[in-house]
């Protein structure tokens, strides 16, 4: 079990990540991504579709190896920490999931299991799982059927998509459909009776994520 001092700080990790991206990416690309993030923050003011006290809907999703996972089966094992992310191409998602992996033992010790959901294909779920050595379920929510019940789903802009393409990242190849839709990142804690006890999305700016310490505090 990790101690309080060992709980990673997303804000500190974000600062380091942005410094690194500032050195790696062209100024034009950084401008496009920054404009996109700020625009999303202004546009999405009311993000959550479910809140504390609501009943979480059942779901049936494929994991990284093609097995079907249901919310009912997860809740039989304990509480569920559910996080919605954008994709394996997103550096902020990788940072977030990597940090959540670091507190996984603490999450488990508090009677919960961690589950991450994105609209990516199972192959891409496996990719992010292997890249970050994730030891929790990473599920594929094709066309965001589950995501849109919990959080806001929106169409990714052509500007960011084309800029990613110029950097060698094929956004469209990560998904099985052509909707270009991705979820606003959000985290939920679902009790074993199916009732949501924690529901948070920082804002529409995808760079901002729920701190690992918030999850541990909520579970405690």
In short:
The chain is an alpha/beta fold and about 220 residues long. About 40% of the residues lie in helices and about 20% in strands.
Count of alpha/pi helices = 9
Structural class: alpha/beta
Name of the CATH class: Alpha Beta
Helix content: 40-55%
Number of DSSP E strands: 9
Strand order of the largest sheet: 5-4-3-8-9
> How far apart, in Å, are the first and last alpha carbons?
14 Å
EC number: 1.11.1.24
Catalytic activity: a hydroperoxide + [thioredoxin]-dithiol = an alcohol + [thioredoxin]-disulfide + H2O
Family: Belongs to the peroxiredoxin family. BCP/PrxQ subfamily.
GO cellular component, one term: cytoplasm
Overview of this structure, please?
With 220 residues, the protein is an alpha/beta fold. The chain has one domain (9-219): Glutaredoxin (3-Layer(aba) Sandwich). It is built from 9 helices and 9 strands. The protein has helices at 10-24, 27-43, 71-77, 91-102, 104-109, 122-131, 147-150, 158-166, 212-219; strands at 60-62, 68-70, 79-84, 112-118, 137-140, 153-155, 181-183, 186-190, 196-200. A 5-stranded mixed β-sheet has the order 5-4-3-8-9, with helices on both faces. Strand 1 and strand 2 form a beta hairpin. The two termini are 14 Å apart. 36% of the residues are buried. Residues 50-220 form the Thioredoxin domain. One of its GO terms (cellular component) is cytoplasm. Its EC number is 1.11.1.24. Keywords: Antioxidant, Disulfide bond, Oxidoreductase, Peroxidase, Redox-active center. One of its GO terms (molecular function) is thioredoxin peroxidase activity.
